[in-house]
Amino acid sequence: MQFPGFSYLKENKEGGLRQAVLAAVAAFFSVFAYIAYLAKDRYTQLPIYSEPVVGMTIWRGYAKDADLWVIHTLLIGLPLLFVIFLSLILIWDKVMADRRQASAVFGLSYLGALSMILADKKQGIPWLISVILLAGAYFLYVKLDLKLDKIKVRFLPFLLGPVFLLFARFTYRYEENGSYQTIRLYASGRWKLLCILLCALMLALSGWRLYYDTRKEKKDDENAFTDLLRALPILLPLSALRSFTLPQGVMSIDYFHNGEVYLPMQQLADFGKLPYRDLIPIHGLCDYYYGFVDRLIFDGSYQSLAAAKTVGDLFLGMFYAAFLYLLIRRFEKPLRFLLIWLVLPFLLQAGMRYVFGFVLLFLLLSGERPGTLTFLYEWILCSILAIAWNPSIGGACALALFPAAVYRGIFCLPGRLKEVAAEVKGGKKITGALIAWICLFVLGLAFIPMFLSIVSYLKENMATTLFTNGMEMLTNPGDLADAFAPALTGGSGAFFVTVFGSLAVLALGLVLMTCHLISADRLVAFWLFYYVIAGYSFVRFDEGFRAGVVTSLSCLLLALILTEKGGAKKIGPRFIICITALIAVVWICDTPPVYDREQNLLGADIPAKGTVTIMGQSVEDPTVYASGESVDMEHLGTGFISANALENLKNINHVIGSQGCEWLDLTTAVAYQGIFKAPMQLPYTSAYNISNRRMQEKAVSLLGEKSPDMILISPGIEFDEAPLSYRCLYLYQWILDQGYIPYCYQNVIYLLKSGVENKVEGSREGTKEFADAMHKKNQGMLPVTWARSIDSEGFADSLEETKAEYATSVSDEGDLTVTFKDPVDPEDADFVLLTDEESETAPEAVAAIVDTSEIEEGAAKDGYELILLSDPGQESGSDGEGALTGDEISWRFDKGEKMLLPLCTSPYYTQNGKISGFVIRGCRGRKLSVRLFRLR
After folding, report:
1. Before 715, cis peptide (omega within 30)?
2. Chain mean pLDDT for the chain
3. Is the separation of the CB atoms in 731 and 740 below 8 Å?
4. CA torsion 560→562→565→571, rounded to 10°?
5. Residue 196: pLDDT band by 50, 70, 90 thresholds?
């Protein structure tokens, strides 16, 4: 299938290429200008929510959906404007004289601007030098025929094979009192044996390669498989060296992200919890990969997960290298090694999550076109594997190829089936193909239950993930030019150059498609993949990491598509385009060029004291060597750990070990369940991933069948800057209704079920500590964004208005006091809606005054402060040590026309008895009305 119309371009390729490039450049600049003109209005509008959800962007009133609007508008606008501009240029060229000089000036101006933008990325210089050196070596090797002696080349694989022996030990130098002690971590006899076997295999393949190359009877019998076998003794050691990074020497306290990887396999191995039945892996079956390597090769502990990641990346690196070697077999062998060396870091950036999505896209879109039956078979098989492996990425890849599969199924399959029937009549056996299709059919049937569970979970999880987890992509939407072209406007960074580099690749693809150098169906598949995956890539900003990986893969994808035989007749121009695209990606992306200090095989230093930063907190304390057995935590493993982290784990172990009962972990530290070898009480990996009402109601239903005796609350409690009481409001309300009693042991806060009296030895009542952990004093923009959503479908169904009569008075300082005629029970006033009846700020423009800096426990910018007034006629608060009486309970929040403040999220409020009223500061010259709501 080729690009419809523009027959003139096919007849006049030289002129057509010039016109297509000019149209692509004009479309590229125009679509960005369009975005810069309209995006400001999008970002100054507050989003509307369908239910009370809280996350990082909601605190700031950030219109996260505007980010996706920007991305999708760019992806739709670029092809559309390209067609429009190309049509106008073709009309112009037919009517007017040739304008090659004008086209050249325009093109050179664009290249100059692009060079200035790229120049802002100083880190690109080492990469550029590396590329020049590698390209120079290739030029000397191939073009000048300065080859090594054939005997030495033949024996080179024998020298590379022993490289695997260097990976057998992970060596570190521990600094203590100015001296160093050499220590080996993550010792594993199975890993050493595997390294020896890999070395032996490489030597055996090297011997076979030598025999194959020196045999007397030469036969032209080398196929793709034989070519790969001959390359493996060189390819695998080099890719392993490229992939290797010394495992982290000090145990990571990022219990959340490491726990997402460690926990699923631990739960399956220790408690038999099946994926998508007893435990839902947040990213898919790929979460089991490193955990499986940890169990298979190492001791399966949390500490050894660092080594498992290194070994897992080695395996992935070797797989990617072999896979790429087969895909680009049309290139000369030295060039294949060069390309693999350049692009391997990009593939490992996303690691396990992208593996089957990568295979699905690149296998079916690059190289020679497979037959109809082969294409459909590979698409179905790879789609099953990719979706099970990672539903988000695998589903996007499968969907991108769906139009091509439908086209082949409708228009090509009937003819191919007739050919197969004719072959069968002619006596050709199809037993192997028939068995393959039967096996695929059985696999598809077996996959249906898991697929339905995946779809159900995605439907639940995707409902609020975009809003609750999102981070700002445009911190200053009023000046988009600074974001899109930072070097030209004096800004810093090159985020948009990195992230939207795929738009340049898309523009290049449009140019090549119009000139009939690549097929339209493959470019459509590439576009559809990026369009669908954009939602996943931009859920979190993360300095553009996810989007940068997608951009890198997009560049590589187009480069490999260009190698198909149906493209240009000569490899020269396409080769230049491929190398140029790869160098551009290499320059922009900040990855190690040829060698990185973290790849040091000789060892790394471990300081006696270190600073660990995790989730915004920095901790500096001594580094100690400990084993899990010595601290009664078998699954912790053996290695170096910060003293503070070890003390925290000991405290938690004392609490859950002393109680001896099943406990529910509601912290963000997902790895706790694995470290302490406890079964999960919910199918979700953490409360962080239970973000919407439907999921929380399901969790409450499961807990209602058998409520846990103990609930672990801290350490580790923030969910995108939101306490548990905000992130999981319905689950939090259920806990309060069950009458759980808070206790505190050292820095551990836990809840005991009402009636369970045997609290942990050394504990004290933790009412105050629990209230501090749940109470969010500064609300930021949350009340304003919720107030705008109060009349929306779904959100209004969550609230029920409570009638309460009140009187108001204003002090000399301008503070407004709201006094209820009859004291209000907190259960009847979960939310308070404040309406500024004299506000001059329209709701749709209120986000323009939002301060997007970090929210601190100070007064909100140009905001209000609401202070709780208890009923003086009754005894308030709880009894005993840590009672909540006498505390000034307040909330601070930004101003708006309406503000819906969630009072029920604070234990200070819910445990303070009846409420007599509020004092509202910062409202001088304003008239506020009050309405109360309860949570349905």
Report:
1. yes
2. 78
3. no
4. -110
5. very high
Tokens standing for residue 482? 């600074």
* Rounded distance between C-alpha atoms, residue 267 and residue 674, angstroms: 7
pLDDT tens-digit readout, 365-419: 765 556 788 888 888 988 898 899 988 888 888 888 888 888 888 888 888 888 8
> For 604-631, what is each residue's pLDDT tens digit?
888 888 766 555 566 667 888 999 888 8
End-to-end CA, the chain: 56
**657 and 672 Cβ atoms separated by less than 8 Å:** no
Q: What is the DSSP letter of 696?
A: H
Cα–Cα distance for residue pair 337/331, rounded to 1 Å: 10
Residue type, 348: L
Helix segments in 222-352, DSSP class H? 224-243, 255-271, 289-297, 305-327, 333-350
The total number of residues written for the chain in this structure: 936
Interstrand relation of 928-935 and 831-836 (parallel, antiparallel or unpaired): antiparallel
How far, in whole angstroms, is CA 483 from its chain's centroid?
A: 22
Tokens of 771: 């209230």
pTM: 0.83
CB of 416 closer than 8 Å to CB of 408: no
Tokens, residue 230: 């001959």
Both tokens of 741, joined, read 């009693």
Average pLDDT over residues 822-834: 90
671 in Cβ contact with 257 (< 8 Å):
no
Number of H helices, E strands in the chain: 33, 21
The C-alpha atoms of residue 318 and residue 42 are separated, in whole angstroms, by 45
Mind listing the pLDDT tens digit for each residue in 26-76? 888 788 777 777 777 778 778 888 888 888 888 888 888 888 888 888 889
Handedness of CA 700, 704, 706, 710 (dihedral sign): positive
Q: Alpha-carbon distance 381 to 441, whole Å?
A: 10
Neighbours of 814 (CB within 10 A): 13
Place of tokens 């039956």: 373
Extract the tokens encoding 202.
């490489």
DSSP class of residue 370 equals: P
Tens-place pLDDT, residues 468-496: 777 777 666 656 655 555 444 444 445 66
Q: Which residue has the tokens 């709780």?
A: 868
Alpha carbons within 13 angstroms on the beta-carbon side of residue 312 total 27
Beta pairing class for 778-780 and 890-894: parallel
Q: Are 526 and 364 in contact (CB under 8 A)?
A: no
Task: Give the DSSP H or E segment for 567.
Answer: none
From the list 395, 404, 296, 301, the residue with the least C-alpha distance to 353 is 395
